């Protein structure tokens, strides 16, 4: 592809072939062979640069760039045709008394050459250009259409044509992944600002004069139209090179990728099923298997992203009839890609079930019977998936899959066989509750396998229902939807308004610099357009690539061009060397572009910067030429300086106007994801473990959209934001850990997969109930509190145990999600890992004290919490704890309700609550002390430390026993008394233990004075881990206990049993993922 682009650039460079009639000394002379003598805009290297920006990896993507360029540039052209038809530019009148009236000459310039500025023209046209810019940025056009429209409008308006491409407001830095036309202005710097520039483009020492036919309104409009044609010609050349030497169609690539995707899915399926059925080790002990599965899933996700992008490219090929010639149906392949994506999600659920499996004794007994049946399912799955792939490749509109019925029958047979095996196993006298509980994950594995099969089985109905319309119908639908988007209020959010405002301000400042500092040079505002974004991370990544590309594309090519331009005779040597250097540099730069990776954008920038330098025409070899060799070198290196100014300007605008940190945006996205995951899990788990009623269709549809659309989009956005945040400078903030947040995203994806499985489980169960496969009236149901549910366990019923366990688990999961939501909020954005861990320990201690899961603790529960917090502080007297609790409630319970919520507790901590324990360890004196110091000793001993402000201040005073006067003076004493005070300080709170060691001396040895106390601080909360997994295990034990009591498993239907087993096992998986997330959060 890189060689194709380099070849296209050489073709495009032919448009600027010099005319044989060109004479630099004449004012009106034909400059280019392929253009009329009235064309003076120049910028013909724009054609070659357009090839670089338009060329993509296949024909469809390149056609998309061509169409978007045509629409964007067309809008700018029409707008400027109207504008300059109405407004007449002011020019110098040689016949007037003062030909320079209204013109301002700038003499101190970086180029050492004075130039003119017409203030009236500048300030009249500027508002119209800005109106167009803001309007295009706000309207819901495609990204590249906006870039072309705004950029060309700025060029045509020419006060800031330098800001060619504007990836301003796009939230996810899409210019890195999609067609990025950005700033092509560097290719036509010599002709920049030619309309508003009052200097004569043919002789910069003179002003444009009234009556000159080159500068009439009619000729300006003709130049605009011809310039539009030059750019469009470049995009057409980029399409042409997609067919030479052979066509590169997205259709063919998509066919290949879908076939590979089918093989990849079957490989993962075989790997998981074989490992689960024929190995006897926990998956955590199989390191190589974990690594292989991780690699396979990563490859499957990347392939799915690639196929999704190719489907969009195929749409443009379909628009021009390419799919018809190749007998390809895009809609069918799109359905197949969705199928493969769903199958990968089901495989993740299978993998998750395998991770939960502990391979207890019952697992092997069941596997002896089920191994053959599962193997047959594997074979049938492979046959059906390959049959689907073959039918789609052949574009058959109606499917009659032969392997479908066989797979469906085999899966139903396996589930019922497992039901009977499980019942026989439970009849054995030596089977315990722990054994049955250990085998619950097998149910999750079987249903995940059933879900995998059902996804393929349902595909035939989905495929046959769809109406496969022709391209014209889809094109009309696309146009109609695009028009409707202009009227949707949701398309105009705050982000777009802020982005448009930032873009306008940055472009205005960049334009002012270009006009008043850099003599109409477009480099500075074009750099602003390159790096502008809505959040610092995405823009910074663009900045780094932009600067790197400019350096790579300007330094060395400038040196080559300096020496090549001096080879005037023979002329063909100059042409050959220029084209050879251009071809090599563009090919090398575009190789990095098509190779992908973080620096691919730098390759793109390097290619078009180098093309602009090599194709820059000069008159050094012509008689009476005005160019000089020194000027060629200076103009090339000036790009670096002006780009740096543009980058600094962008940073100032970004920091001054509503700056958005990519890292903070990522944290907010994670918060939103956690909230939706918690909501969906609570509905799926809570409803079916508290009620035997089915979920309504409306609620199921809302859950489907939430899981399959909303959360999935959030995770995709997080992946993009992670790349941007990783490139973001941290400055004074803590170091950003990309690995940590990648693990968070992976766990969020696993939670989504788990919730998706529960959703499919509930939907499958409701489908079976609806079609009368399940008789809900004749089966035992743990969710119904009837008399039969009671068993002899003191005064406790099995139902009550189950209800209490599920209630506690739901409350704990909700609390865990709330904790994680808080930790990803703004409060903890700069928190150290120790602070985060301390907060989680406080939260867990509070939760443990909240026995009834009400979210509030009373005096009795406060007592338990304080004892837990100060467990490391030493012993507490039973009589004093009541006083401590009373003082705690006085300080923390603001509303006087007699209960303390966690919010009140944390608010007290944030407002200065400090829990402090002071422990005095005293040793016998080594020498005698004067008697008159006794009172001072005691007074000093009872004084609080200088660092005050404690809620609980525990003083442990140890008096020395006098029974043995010969006892070692270093012996410590074990008698202790405590004193308590309560106080709320304005200082932000901490929870610490301060241990004091003091030595006091007197003559009798009966009193002590604390001298030179030694202090140390350490954490005191005696909470090492959250108990969510323990709660999940208790809930599972309660469920199994109910199931085995009085052989209830014989009265539970297969569907109900599978539903309950999978819900319990799935809940255990959610707990495992939440614990993993909590461990990740507290990691550095």
Automatic annotation (TrEMBL):
GO terms for cellular component: plasma membrane. Residues 837-872, 880-915 form the EF-hand domain. Keywords: Calcium, Cell membrane, Membrane, Transmembrane, Transmembrane helix. It is found in: Cell membrane. The chain crosses the membrane at residues 38-55, 67-89, 122-141, 153-172, 226-249, 497-519, 539-560, 572-592, 598-616, 628-653. One of its GO terms (molecular function) is calcium ion binding. This is EF-hand domain-containing protein. It comes from the Eukaryota. The keyword Repressor does not apply. PROSITE patterns: EF_HAND_1, EF_HAND_2. Pfam families: EF-hand_7.
